[in-house]
């Protein structure tokens, strides 16, 4: 996120992001008009391009802000507070809270779909990379903590564990975004246990006597 944005006062930021959210929700990423966003927010085009590179940058920044709100609503998460007994249970609980928040804010799924379509576009997807870099840093902290606790494997390079975890995380996220509206309540309720089990199978430390 551009540090220039910090210079924009809170009320004008709020007006801009609310206008942008309405526009993207109504017209999708491709159909969204910067001119309509500017008209609704009362911001000039020169000001917009001072704070953002383009429409993709504005949209990605809005997603980052939305995720910050989402994590605040879910509750704080401190990897250093994890212990060996509660390590995996903590992620299941975090996942359950996330599902409850998404259930109350269906637009998050809609915006998630737009985000991944943007990410797949080689012409405009580069702005999504900074969000994944931030997630990667978070994943690295979690893996390091898990290894220190003895619950994450150490027989593979840490960079490979991070890459593998990121690949699974994105695959699951894309699948959930694409299928959310078709999932039954029981399927959503089962996701925390089933999806975290995939991560456990991928990176958990072998148990005593395991031949891996």
How would you characterize this protein structure?
71% of the residues lie in helices and 0% in strands. The mean pLDDT is 89. The termini are far apart. The protein has helices spanning 10-31, 34-41, 45-51, 55-74, 87-104, 107-119, 129-149, 158-179, 185-203. The protein is elongated and about 60 Å long. It is mainly alpha-helical. The chain is built from 9 helices and no strands.
Summarize the main sheet: none
The secondary structure category is mainly alpha
Radius of gyration: 19 Å
| % residues in beta strands | under 5%
Overall pLDDT level: 89
| Residues in helix, % | over 70%
**Number of DSSP strand runs:** 0
The low-confidence runs, each spanning 5 or more residues with pLDDT under 50, are none
Q: Cα distance, first to last residue?
A: 42 Å
Number of helices: 9
Order of helices and strands: HHHHHHHHH
Overall spatial form = elongated
Short description:
With 212 residues, this protein is mostly helical.
Structural topology:
Elements: H1 10-31, H2 34-41, H3 45-51, H4 55-74, H5 87-104, H6 107-119, H7 129-149, H8 158-179, H9 185-203
Helix pairs in contact: 1-2, 1-4, 1-6, 4-5, 4-6, 5-9, 6-8, 7-8, 8-9
């Amino acid at each position: 996120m551009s540090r220039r944005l910090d210079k924009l006062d809170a009320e004008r930021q709020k007006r801009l992001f609310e206008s942008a959210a309405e526009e993207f929700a109504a017209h999708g990423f491709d159909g969204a008009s910067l001119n309509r966003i500017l008209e609704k927010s009362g911001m000039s085009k020169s000001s917009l391009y001072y704070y953002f590179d383009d429409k993709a940058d504005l949209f990605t920044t809005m997603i980052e802000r939305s995720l910050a709100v989402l994590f605040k609503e879910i509750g704080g998460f401190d990897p250093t507070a994890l212990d060996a007994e509660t390590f995996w249970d903590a992620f299941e609980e975090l996942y359950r809270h996330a599902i409850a928040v998404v259930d109350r804010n269906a637009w998050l799924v809609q915006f998630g779909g737009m985000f991944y379509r943007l990410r797949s576009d080689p012409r405009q997807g580069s702005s999504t990379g900074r969000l994944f870099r931030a997630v990667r840093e978070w994943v690295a902290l979690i893996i390091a903590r898990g290894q220190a606790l003895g619950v994450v494997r150490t027989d593979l390079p840490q960079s490979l564990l991070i890459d593998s975890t990121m690949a699974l995380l994105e695959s699951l996220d894309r699948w959930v975004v694409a299928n959310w509206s078709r999932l039954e309540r029981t399927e959503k309720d089962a996701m925390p246990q089933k999806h975290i089990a995939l991560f456990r199978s991928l990176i958990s430390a072998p148990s005593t006597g395991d031949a891996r």
